[in-house]
Amino acid sequence: MTRIFNFCAGPATLPLPVLERARDELLDYRGTGMSVMEISHRSSTFDEMANQTEACLRRLMSIPDDYTVLFLAGGATTQFAQVPLNLADPQRPGAYVVDGSWSKKAHGIAARLGLAHLAASSEDTGFRTIPAEQEWNLDGEFAYLHYVSNETISGVQFAQPPECGLPLVADMSSDILSRPVEVEKFGVIYAGAQKNVGQAGIALVVVKKDLLRDLPTEIPDLQSWKVQHEQGSRLNTPPTYAWYIAGLVFDWIETQGGVERMAELNQHKAQTLYSFLDQSQFYRNEIPAEFRSHMNIPFQIVDESLHPQFIAEAEAAGLSSLKGHRSVGGMRASIYNAMPIDGILALIDFMRDFESRAG
Amino acid sequence: MTRIFNFCAGPATLPLPVLERARDELLDYRGTGMSVMEISHRSSTFDEMANQTEACLRRLMSIPDDYTVLFLAGGATTQFAQVPLNLADPQRPGAYVVDGSWSKKAHGIAARLGLAHLAASSEDTGFRTIPAEQEWNLDGEFAYLHYVSNETISGVQFAQPPECGLPLVADMSSDILSRPVEVEKFGVIYAGAQKNVGQAGIALVVVKKDLLRDLPTEIPDLQSWKVQHEQGSRLNTPPTYAWYIAGLVFDWIETQGGVERMAELNQHKAQTLYSFLDQSQFYRNEIPAEFRSHMNIPFQIVDESLHPQFIAEAEAAGLSSLKGHRSVGGMRASIYNAMPIDGILALIDFMRDFESRAG
Lengths: 359, 359
Hints:
Two copies of one chain form a homodimer. Chain A is α/β, with parallel strands linked by helices. Chain A has helices at residues 16-25, 44-61, 76-87, 101-112, 225-230, 240-256, 258-279, 307-316, 341-358, and strands at 5-6, 67-73, 94-98, 116-121, 144-148, 150-151, 156-157, 168-171, 186-192, 202-208, 283-284, 296-301, 319-320, 331-334.
C-alpha cells in the first residue's frame, strides 16, 4: 500500500494512526465482538465512547461547563439553517459577515428564513480580504454575529475572533482544533467534521447553554439544539461511526500535544509554503498576508495555461486533489492538522521541479 | 477475535464479508492511496462508487427509471419531516396509518407541521395489530398514504402494501431489501440505513420523479428532494463513508442471490423462531400470526420475573442486545438480512437450555 498526500479541501486526509486504529477495530470494537457500526446508540458501550469523546474534546478546547457539546447528523450546511432557527427572530435577526463562499451560503440560508442582516461583505475583492471590523454595519438589534473563521475557497482566515459585543457564532468547519480558541468568547462554535474532525456526515455544535431555547412547534425536534442537548444528541439514531472516528481524531490530537502543538505545526507548514510562494516569480498567492489562511492555500502559476499540466503531473506524483475551486482557478493546497510537513515539502519539491521543466 | 450474535434493533449487525472488505480497504480504497473517508465527494472516484452503488440498488429492487434514488444525511426521523414538506399542503395533507411507535412519530411530526391526517391507528391494541384497510378513514383529499412497513418495537409487519389508491409513502427502514417490493406501487420508499442497509447517518429515499416539486423559499434546499435530485444528493458534503458501506451491503446482497433469496432466508429464520415460540409453554409471542414481523420478534417468558436473568445470561453467552423495548418489555430478536440462521439456532439452543434450568 502506498499512501499519497491528499490536499483535498474536504473530505480531507486523516491521520494515518486514526485510520490504522479504525481498521484494527473494525470487526471487533474493544472486545465487544461487534463493529462500532453495529453497536446500539443506547448501549453502555456507546455511552462510554461518547462520554470519552466529549471529555477529550472539552480538554482539547477547554470548553467550560456552561457550554453543551452536540454531535449532530449532517454538516455545517445543515447548521446554516439551524443557527438562525435556534437563535434569531424576525425582530432580532442574525448579523452576518460575508468573507467567502461559505459565509455567503450561511447568510443566504438565514436570509431565506427572514432571519438575516448583512453586516459586511468582501465579495467586491473576490473574497481576497476580510471586511474591517470598524466598517461592519451593526446598527440595530441582532441575536448574534455570524462569521466563518476560515474560508476554504479563497483561503482567508480570521486571525482573531471579532470583538463586536454580540454573541459570536462561528462556523469553524475548516479550522477547528487547528489552533487554540477562547470558547468563552463565543455563543456557538460549529463545524462539519470532514476537514479537521473526521468523517463527513456529522457536525460538532458547541453551544452556550443560556442560548438554548424552545422552538416553535412546527420546527422538528431534530433541529432543536435544546432538545438535542436534553437527549445527549440521541433524539434519533446519530451517525455513530462518524462520532467514533471523531473520538479517534481527538485522541490523536491529544497524543500529538493538543491544539497548541497543532497550531505550531500548522503555522510552520503554512509559513513554509507561503515563503516559497512569495519568493517565486513563477507561482503566486494573491491573498494579503494579514488575511492568509493556515489551512487552505490557493496558488496560481503566473502563466495560467500551465495549470492543467501542473495538476495532472502532481496527481501522478502522488500529490492529489490540488485543483483549485473553479471560482478561483489554479491550485489549492488544503493542509489541515492531518497533513504532515512532509506533504508540504514534497509539494514544494514538485513545484520546484515543475518550474525548472516548464519555466 | 470472536464475533458475537448481535440481535440489536439498530444499529444492527452487518454481514461479516462487508466488514472485512471495509477493513481491508480502509487505508487504501482500490489503489487510490486514500481511505474512502478522505475522498472528495466531487471526485471521479466517488462518482464511480456512487453510480455503482445506485445501479446495484436499482437492480436489487428493480427500480424503474422514472424514480430517483437519493442518499441523504440523517435517518428516517429526518425524513418524517421531509415527507410532508415535499409532498403535502395544508389543504392536502398526508394520511397516516399508525401501527406502531415509528408510524406514530412520523404522524406526530407531520401533524406539528399541520400536514397530517390520521387515517387509522392500532394503538388501542398496544400496536399488536395493523388496522384493517377497509376501516381506514380516507374521507377527504390527501397527498399520500404514509405507513411503516415494519414496526420494530411491537414486531408487526405489513404482509403486502395497501391498495388504497393514494400515492403510497412507506418507511421501510427495518425491512428494505429483506423481500421483493413492487416499487411501481409506491410514490416514495425511504429507509434509514442502520438496519438492512449499513451504517447510521444516511437514509435512502426513492422518489417517483413526477412527485418532485419546488418548495417554498423558507425551506432550506437540503430538505428539498427536487434539489437533492438535481444535485445527485451532493448539494453539500454527504455522509460519504456511510454511502460506501451501503454499496458494500448491496453488493453482498446481490452476491447472496438478491432480495428474493433474502426473503427466503428471512422467512425461514423467522419461521424457525416463531415455531419454537408457539410450541413453548415457557416463552410466548403475542402478535397474531398475520401481523408478525420477519425482522423483529419480541418474546416474553410467561414468568416475567425471569427476563433480567435471561437477558444477562444470553449476553454472557454471546447473544447480544436481546432486551426488548421498554414499552413492550421482555426480549426482542432483531433478525435482519445480516443475521445468519446460525444466530437463530444458537438463540433457540440457549432458550431451551435456559428453560431447562429455570423452568
